[in-house]
Structure formats: C-alpha cells, structure tokens
Design goal:
three-stranded antiparallel β-sheet; alpha+beta; single chain; globular; four-stranded antiparallel β-sheet
C-alpha cells in the first residue's frame, strides 16, 4: 500500500514537471492547427490562405474552444453536439462533420437543417444555394460538449477522486501522519488555511475555507492540465473568458450575500467622512464593488492566455523562417532558439499556473474578509472626540 502510494506520488510529480516542459516544443495541436483552420473555411478562403503559414490563425485555433479534440495530424476525437433551433433540438456527434475517407470537414444533414462548422461555430447550411443560411443560423442555440466542457468534467472528476481518497485516509487513520497523496495535498491545505484564510478573513474563516480550497485546486489543476500536450490535456481552459467570468461571479455573489451592514455603510456613506468628500468617494466605492470581480476575471484570463500566445509565437518562428520548406536551413537554425525559449516558457508557466491559483484565492479571501470585517471607525472616532474634550 505504501509502495503504491509512493509510485502514485512519483507519477503525479513527474507528469506535473516534465510533460508540460515539452508541450510546445513538440505540440501536435500546434503542428496541424493551420490545416484545421483551413479545413473550416470555404474554398475561396482556403485559396486565399495558400500564400503561406498563418501564425495568428494557428495561435487563435490553439487557444480557442472546439467541437472536437485534435489529437495528432488528422486524428480527432468527436464530441457530442447539442443544439436548439427554431424547429427543435438536435443531438449528433461532431464526427459527422468529418468525411470518413478524406477527413475533411463537410456539411451534415440533421433532422431539421443541414449544418456546417465554420470558424469553430455551428452554422446552418443551405445545400441548394451552397451558402450559409444566416437567418436560420441566428436561431442556433449551442450547448454542445466542447473541448473546454470535457476539460471541466475531467478536472472535477480528478478533484473528486483526489479529495475523496484523501478524506477516506484521514477517516480510517486518525492521528497518523499523512501518506501518499495526503503528503502532497496537506501542505497546500494548511497553507491556504493559515496564510490565506485566517490572515485575510479573520475569525470567521472556516465558513469560507471549503470554497477557497476548492477554487485553488480547481484553478491550479486546470492550469497544469492545460500544459500537458496529450489528451485530456492541452485545452486553454482557464484562458477562456467565460470560465474566469463564472468564477469571478461566484466570488462576487459570496461577497455580496455574506456582507454585513457595516460593509454597506462604508460603501454608501463611510463614517467620519465629510459630505463633500462622500459625493466623490461613494461612486468610487460602488464602482469598486463591480471592479473587484472584473479584475479577478481579467487577471486569470489574460495571464494564462498570454503564456500560450508567447510560447506559440516562438514556435511559429520556425515555420515563418522556413517559408514553407523553401528555406530549411533558416528554419532549423531558428528552431534551436525557438524550442529553447518554448521550454523556458513552459517552466515559467509551471510557476504561473500555481501563482494564478494563489492570487485568485488570496484576492477572493480578501474580498470576503472586507465583507465580514468588524469595523470600529465610529468607536475610534468617538474616543478621539472624547479625548479631545477631556484635554
């Protein structure tokens, strides 16, 4: 039992350290992303792209969401498509958009309409006019299981497996030292409790500790999974603005609904401040209520996405200097420097993956602490006035 726990810990540590280091140095998604983008365009668009390698399109394809999971070359894992149109619901596999022989994208005739994948979105196709039916496309409501949704499910499943196993060991071995996965998880839990929750929230930290622990490991595990180049890793999950927005909204709701009356009093009419200053200060405080979750959303989104873009930009230099095979010497020469920078960026991303989870958790705890803090400004102000009178 102890040996298997050690093996599991070694495998987890190795995957966290070494797999991400090569995700951009040899990334199948990045190699064939330009071909995927071309396949998702019309014939005229493809003809226009034949002039050379398009790094911007490759990068946007890599960091964006998709209805299929690109494994290598022309190998894709199809994902379930769930859409609603003005005529009803449609359920089918995204593999229907791929030709079984050529593996190129093609229209798919559904129950109500014919559909195509265009720029990563499902559109209604008119087979007679050989063009998109824009009016019908506006009625498409897409709740498909995309690449980011699969990543979300994988992260949640991993968290459940890790923490149910750790909790079971604590229950079965009370008073004993941590072993296996416990020894990996426990230091982080203690760190979040002592250095984030207690210091930022105060006496009522236990009320918010489960959320802080969950959101820390959720973001950290999702960031680490995004650095692994093989399935189910490689998705730019926390670099999706919708994901970070939901996390920020949850923090905003917890802060708002748990805030004490003194918190709102300091927002709308801070005690001890002259009325003339309140005219300026109160709108700023109200704006700050909404700016705090906005900052959480943008910080996580921007930092994770920027790391992917920078690494892929270095990677793209190889193909830009190679000029589609016309200058292989320049391509190989630049490849040495580009791959070195990519590996460096990936080790830096390991640090960023932890730091962004830590910063998000710390700021959330600070917002919770400000909402439940016991304010004593009025008492201090009264004591100061009393001291002035007596002297």
């Amino acid at each position: 039992m102890r040996l298997s726990a050690r093996i599991a810990r070694i495998i987890f540590s190795a995957s966290a350290l070494f797999f991400p280091a090569f995700s951009y140095a040899f990334d199948p998604d990045a190699v064939a992303a330009a071909d995927t983008v071309r396949a998702q365009k019309t014939t005229n668009d493809v003809a226009a792209d034949e002039g050379g390698f398009k790094p911007s399109e490759m990068i946007m394809e890599h960091i964006g969401d998709a209805h299929e999971w690109h494994i290598y070359g022309k190998i894709f894992i199809p994902l379930p498509v769930i859409i609603k149109t003005d005529k009803g619901w449609e359920f089918f596999s995204s593999g229907n958009f791929r030709n079984s022989e050529t593996n190129e994208l093609q229209p798919y005739k559904g129950r109500y309409y014919t559909y195509i994948l265009k720029d990563g979105k499902i559109k209604v196709w008119d087979p007679l006019a050989m063009m998109e039916n824009e009016n019908a496309s506006k009625t498409v409501f897409d709740i498909s299981i995309t690449k980011n949704v699969v990543t979300l499910l994988v992260v949640v499943l991993l968290l459940m497996l890790i923490f149910t196993g750790v909790a079971r060991k604590y229950k079965n071995n009370p008073g004993k030292g941590p072993r296996g996965m416990q020894s990996l998880v426990e230091p982080f839990i203690i760190f979040i409790r002592d250095d984030i929750a207690k210091t930022s929230i105060g006496k009522k930290y236990e009320r918010y500790l489960p959320f802080l622990i969950t959101v820390f490991f959720f973001i950290w595990l999702a960031n680490m999974l995004g650095l692994i180049p093989v399935f189910p890793g490689g998705a730019n999950f926390t670099g999706n603005i919708a994901i970070t927005m939901v996390l920020a909204v949850i923090v905003f709701m917890i802060t708002t609904f748990s805030a004490k009356s003194t918190y709102w009093r300091h927002v709308f009419a801070m005690p001890g401040v002259p009325i003339g200053v309140l005219v300026i200060l109160t709108p700023i405080e109200i704006l700050g209520i909404f700016l705090k979750p906005f900052v959480l959303m943008i910080r996580l989104f921007a930092n994770i996405t920027a790391g992917h873009i920078i690494a892929l930009s270095f990677y793209s230099l190889i193909f830009i200097f190679a000029k589609g095979g016309e200058s292989l010497g320049a391509g190989f020469g630049v490849a040495v420097v580009s791959i070195a920078f990519c590996v460096f960026m990936m080790f830096l991303e390991l640090l960023v993956a932890f730091l962004q989870a830590y910063v998000f958790t710390l700021l959330a705890a600070m917002y919770f602490g400000s909402a439940v803090e016991e304010h004593h400004h009025e008492e201090e102000h009264a004591q100061q006035e009393h001291a002035t009178v007596t002297t």
